[in-house]
């Protein structure tokens, strides 16, 4: 309880100091006196901790005691600083000159430095050696044992009385009677209080003198200040006091920028944060407008009418975001709530602003990253699509022409693969800089984008065919000189395709497709050139080029999806397996048939990564259905010859099985008859797959190479009859005979038979009569996405 009493006692000076600050209208002298009383508070706190033996150990008490000794030690230079303020604020110019040789900034700083050295010595064992626990009756406290340098503390006391003497002499020279009386008595009582406080150096006083000294400081100052300002307090307007109290509470509780302006834009209130932001003193801003202070003229002009209307209305208005310019010139963003306040004397607008600069910068950074290429800093595909759409909307209204240009670097893949991706990236950066430089110098309205890899696009607003060709020639000229990468020179050329709005298309997708087609035309014709689009380019060859180009990014852009078609047991009508079928929906080409893109994928080798994705996705879907509680079904996956020829194919299949943990007997790989061309090398690989537990099925049997001589050598489990035979067998006896023959061959080789393309009940019945085991086709179900096939065909486990 005694400790609590001492702590409460320590708070009295700071409370009095705040009171003085208000009474003296926050002048410099009141601020220094507040500092003096704050140090008196710290003085009392260091004594309070010496009575805290029940709460803390000796090390903790010693630490806080030494820490708060900052107060009693720094009282000395602070009193000297008060004398300096007295000279500056209360004496006449002549007297200031007389005292300036002794009381100036340098001597104030020296006094603080000396006091701080004394404080630092107090942290050493030569200053305060130890704490001794003393028990006198019910009083138990720690008392400091001073070390060999204890004399520095006595020296600090001597300096205090020297400071009081100086201040006393200065106060005698003050002309204003009330101020002189206040200062003289303040010095007298401060001296008496400090003199009492020095008795703390004797343990027999039980550390009580400091409490008395603190009370002397606080009470004497409070009485003196009250006497001096009694008339001011009595004459305060009650309503004004309430308004100030409200405003001060807002300022004190809210760390944001707060200010109020009357209907003429003059500041009536602002907090320190806002004043510091503007680089001005609060008092210098009160009563003046932004125009007079020349603050944020560009921003403020936009809102003059808005703020005037708001001040004269009763509605609360939020301006969500606005920019301010700090005194440093830095532009910051704030979220501001502006509220009109009406008084009898007039109206005002109170504003509370929260700094959101960091958030805005983060948002801008995220937006930049979302719309720009991370390597070159150029706008990316997303920005290109957005800008092109906006341009076309404007062009339609204005009935004007515009052009877009696709640019692809010739043989860049060779450089990238030969030298490495790091060198390729450096080359892309240099190409980007060179093209940007051309646009800035001669084509300011144009804008360049990087779509990915070595593909760039340029939007040319208001360019016609002739303008576009001129620009294309300038671009080609850029590449005549080599690019210096790490002290080596590399040469590369571009292929450029151009499409013109509205001649070559009235929407973004059409223009993009036609510019891309024109670019591929250039590549086919020898590269390092440009070509305007024309309708003759819409041939199958260029369709193939478009498919090949889009196919390269289809996996990364997640354009593929697997559909599933059930395989039905003709005897029981139960579902026994699912065949996974690849579908491709490209944003430019739309839905592309597998018959159209699979062959291109095989030619280019892209079937390898696509095949891995299909196998992994299909088997992962199988596992997911099992986890959802459905009965286990086999999943059938088509495998091309190009995949089987890949030396890593078997290992890749093993990895998928191991990673997913799926039973190999649930996996069916469908191969084609074309493996007969590689029969000798395929048999060992197929046997390895078979040893893993995977089932093998020959797809589209009867349409490919003659493989009957190898049929008994392959480790097959089933044959799939091509749909071309099944769909026509009821109208064509020859097809009917072929189906019967295939079923008979399969039965002789102990293989299951699956018929594809079953579209009617009659076909299903005939196949069942022939002895065909399984079937699939539109009669049962067309291929469906995973979610639809689950709802219609999967059966929950018992």
How would you describe this structure to a colleague?
This protein is an alpha/beta fold and 798 residues long. The chain has four domains: 233 residues, Rhopdopsin 7-helix transmembrane proteins; 110 residues, PAS domain (Beta-Lactamase, 2-Layer Sandwich), CATH 3.30.450; 167 residues, Reverse transcriptase/Diguanylate cyclase domain (Alpha-Beta Plaits, 2-Layer Sandwich), CATH 3.30.70.270; 234 residues, Alpha-Beta Barrel (TIM Barrel). The protein is 54% helix and 19% strand. The strands form five sheets. Strands 15-16-18-19-20-21-22-23 form an eight-stranded mixed barrel, surrounded by five helices. It has a five-stranded antiparallel beta sheet with strand order 4-3-7-6-5, with helices on both faces. Strands 9-10-8-13-14 form a five-stranded mixed beta sheet, sandwiched between helices. Strand 11 and strand 12 form a beta hairpin. Helix 2 packs antiparallel against helix 9, helix 4 packs antiparallel against helix 6 and helix 8 packs antiparallel against helix 9. The radius of gyration is 45 Å and the shape is elongated. It starts with a helix and ends in a 5-residue tail after the last helix. About 2% of the residues have low confidence. This is PAS domain S-box-containing protein/diguanylate cyclase (GGDEF)-like protein. Pfam families: EAL, GGDEF, PAS_4. Keywords: Membrane, Transmembrane, Transmembrane helix. InterPro entries: Biofilm_reg_signaling, EAL_dom, EAL_sf, GGDEF_dom, Nucleotide_cyclase, PAS, PAS-assoc_C, PAS-like_dom_sf.
């Amino acid at each position: 309880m005694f400790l609590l009493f001492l702590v409460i006692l320590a708070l009295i000076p700071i409370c009095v100091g705040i009171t003085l600050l208000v009474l003296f209208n926050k002048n410099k002298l009141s601020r220094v006196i507040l500092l003096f009383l704050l140090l008196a508070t710290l003085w009392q706190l260091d004594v309070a901790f010496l009575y805290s033996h029940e709460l803390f150990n000796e090390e903790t008490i010693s630490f806080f005691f030494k820490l708060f000794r900052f107060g009693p030690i720094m009282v000395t230079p602070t009193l000297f600083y008060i004398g300096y303020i007295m000279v500056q604020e209360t004496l006449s110019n002549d007297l200031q000159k007389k005292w300036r040789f002794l009381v100036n900034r340098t001597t104030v700083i020296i006094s603080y430095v000396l006091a701080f050295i004394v404080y630092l010595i107090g942290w050493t064992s030569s200053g305060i050696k130890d704490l001794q626990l003393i028990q006198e009756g019910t009083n138990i406290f720690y008392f400091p044992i001073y070390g060999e340098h204890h004399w520095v503390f006595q020296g600090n006391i001597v300096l205090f009385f020297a400071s009081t003497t100086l201040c006393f002499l200065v106060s005698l020279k003050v002309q204003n009677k009330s101020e002189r009386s206040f200062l003289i008595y303040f010095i007298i009582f401060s001296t008496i209080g400090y003199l009492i406080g020095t008795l703390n150096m004797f343990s027999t006083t039980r550390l009580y003198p400091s409490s008395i000294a603190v009370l002397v400081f606080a009470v004497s100052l409070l009485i003196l200040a009250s006497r001096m300002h009694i008339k001011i307090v009595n004459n305060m307007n009650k309503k004004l006091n309430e308004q100030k109290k409200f405003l001060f509470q807002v300022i004190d509780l809210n760390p944001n920028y707060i200010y109020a302006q009357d209907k003429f834009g003059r500041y009536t209130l602002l907090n320190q944060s806002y004043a510091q932001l503007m680089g001005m003193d609060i008092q210098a801003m009160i009563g003046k407008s932004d125009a007079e202070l020349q603050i944020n003229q560009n921003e403020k002009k936009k809102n003059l009418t808005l703020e005037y209307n708001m001040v004269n209305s009763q509605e609360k208005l939020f301006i969500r975001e606005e920019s301010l310019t700090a005194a440093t010139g830095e532009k910051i963003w704030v979220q501001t709530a502006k509220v009109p306040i009406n008084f009898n004397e007039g109206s005002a607008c109170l504003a509370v602003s929260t700094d959101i600069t960091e958030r805005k910068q983060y948002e801008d950074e995220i937006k930049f990253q979302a719309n720009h290429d991370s390597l070159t800093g150029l706008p990316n595909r997303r920005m290109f699509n957005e800008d092109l759409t906006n341009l076309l909307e404007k062009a339609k209204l204005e009935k004007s022409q515009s052009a877009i240009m696709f640019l692809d670097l010739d043989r860049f893949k060779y450089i990238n693969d030969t030298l490495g991706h790091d060198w390729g990236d450096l080359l892309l950066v240099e190409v980007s800089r060179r093209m940007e430089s051309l646009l800035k110098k001669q084509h300011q309205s144009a804008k360049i984008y990087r779509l990915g890899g070595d593909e760039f696009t340029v939007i040319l607003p208001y360019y016609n065919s002739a303008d576009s060709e001129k620009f294309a020639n300038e671009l080609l000229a850029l590449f005549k000189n080599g690019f210096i990468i790490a002290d080596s020179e590399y040469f590369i050329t571009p292929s450029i395709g151009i499409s013109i709005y509205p001649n070559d298309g009235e929407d973004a997708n059409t223009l993009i497709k036609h510019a891309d087609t024109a670019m591929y035309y250039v590549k086919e014709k020898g590269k390092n050139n440009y070509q305007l689009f024309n309708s003759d380019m819409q041939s199958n060859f260029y369709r193939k080029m478009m498919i090949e180009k889009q196919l390269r990014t289809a996996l990364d852009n997640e354009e593929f999806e697997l559909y599933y078609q059930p395989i039905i047991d003709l005897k029981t009508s139960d579902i026994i397996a699912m065949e996974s079928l690849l579908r491709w929906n490209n944003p430019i080409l739309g839905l592309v048939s597998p018959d159209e893109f699979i062959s291109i994928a095989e030619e280019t080798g892209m079937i390898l990564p696509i095949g891995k994705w299909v196998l992994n996705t299909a088997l992962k879907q199988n596992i997911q259905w099992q986890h959802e509680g459905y009965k286990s079904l086999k999943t059938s996956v088509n495998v091309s010859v190009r995949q089987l020829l890949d030396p890593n194919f078997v290992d890749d299949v093993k990895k998928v099985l191991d990673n997913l943990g799926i039973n190999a007997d649930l996996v069916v790989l469908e191969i084609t008859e074309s493996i007969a061309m590689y029969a000798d090398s395929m048999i060992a690989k197929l046997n390895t797959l078979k040893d893993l537990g995977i089932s093998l099925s020959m797809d589209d049997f009867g349409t490919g190479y003659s493989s009957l001589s190898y049929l008994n050598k392959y480790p097959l489990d089933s044959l799939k009859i091509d749909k071309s035979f099944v769909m026509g067998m009821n109208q064509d006896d020859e097809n009917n005979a072929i189906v019967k023959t295939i079923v008979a061959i399969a039965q002789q080789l102990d293989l299951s038979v699956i018929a594809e393309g079953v579209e009617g009940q009659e076909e299903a019945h005939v196949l069942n009569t022939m002895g065909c085991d399984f079937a699939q086709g539109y009669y049962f179900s067309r291929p469906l996405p995973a979610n639809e096939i689950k709802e219609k065909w999967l059966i929950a486990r018992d």
